[in-house]
């Protein structure tokens, strides 16, 4: 602005800029963030970025939920993440990740973690390398999904099948399934035994 001889303001010059597009983009980004957060919560998964050269990982909110961590309480570092992996799975985990890092390739693996309350959680992780135009590794991106419900259902099914097989053996029973659409019948081991068929003739 300009001043009068006595120092008081005489004129003001203002410049205005249309920021409508920027505000709209910021609003859209916030909407997408809310959608992503809702999807992560509903499907029990999270996303991550790993920068090996810096030994740094960026986690989405879904990762904190799966690992039952509070972002504001303490940093969820790589070391802390690895320390939660089940002792029986850590060697396989390290081997897969080390191979992916050394060869800049993608990876898929399943492993268990021990949560702060001592319970076990089954996870499925997928990772993919991001390279620059010269083929040098920049980072890995990936997702982690909680598949505990799947494994719980599978284990329950195995227990049920084992119980059924034992019941058939003790009571000399047999069961069968008829798939009408495929015109196929599946016989249980107990049923084959009742019919007197040897194992090599069963199909």
Overall description:
With 203 residues, the chain is an alpha+beta fold. Helices cover 40% and strands 27% of the residues. It has a 5-stranded antiparallel beta sheet with strand order 4-3-7-6-5, sandwiched between helices. The protein has a two-stranded antiparallel ribbon with strand order 1-2.
How many helices? The count is 6
- Numbering strands along the chain, what is their spatial order in the largest sheet? 4-3-7-6-5
Oligomer: single chain
Main sheet overview: 5 strands, antiparallel
Q: Proportion of β residues?
A: 25-35%
Structural class by secondary-structure content: alpha+beta
What order do the helices and strands follow?
EEHEEHHHEEEHEEH
Shape: elongated
Alpha-carbon distance between the termini?
Answer: 94 Å
User: What would you report as the Rg, rounded to the nearest angstrom?
Assistant: 29 Å
List keywords for this structure.
203 residues; alpha+beta; five-stranded antiparallel β-sheet; two-stranded antiparallel sheet; 40% helix
Write the topology of this structure.
Blueprint: E1 2-3, E2 9-11, H1 20-43, E3 45-51, E4 56-59, H2 61-66, H3 78-83, H4 90-103, E5 107-114, E6 120-131, E7 137-146, H5 148-171, E8 176-179, E9 184-187, H6 189-195
Antiparallel strand pairs: 1-2, 3-4, 3-7, 5-6, 6-7, 8-9
């Amino acid at each position: 602005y300009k001043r009068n001889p006595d120092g008081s303001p005489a004129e003001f010059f203002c410049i205005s800029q249309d920021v409508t597009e920027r505000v709209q983009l910021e609003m859209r980004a916030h909407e997408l963030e809310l959608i992503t957060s809702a999807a992560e919560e509903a499907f029990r998964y999270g996303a991550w970025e790993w920068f090996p050269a810096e030994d740094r990982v960026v986690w989405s909110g879904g990762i904190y939920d799966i690992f039952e961590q509070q972002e504001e309480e303490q940093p969820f570092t790589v070391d802390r993440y690895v320390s939660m992996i089940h002792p029986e799975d850590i060697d396989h985990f390290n081997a897969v990740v080390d191979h992916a890092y050394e060869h800049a390739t993608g990876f898929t693996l399943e492993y268990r973690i021990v949560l702060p309350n001592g319970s076990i959680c089954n996870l499925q992780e997928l990772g993919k390398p991001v390279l620059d135009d010269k083929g040098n590794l920049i980072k890995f991106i990936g997702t982690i999904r909680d598949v505990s419900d799947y494994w719980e259902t599978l284990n329950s099914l195995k227990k049920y099948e084992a119980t059924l097989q034992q019941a058939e053996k003790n009571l000399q029973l047999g069961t069968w399934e008829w798939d009408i659409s495929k015109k196929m019948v599946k016989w249980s081991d107990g049923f084959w035994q009742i019919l007197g068929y040897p194992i090599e003739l069963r199909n």
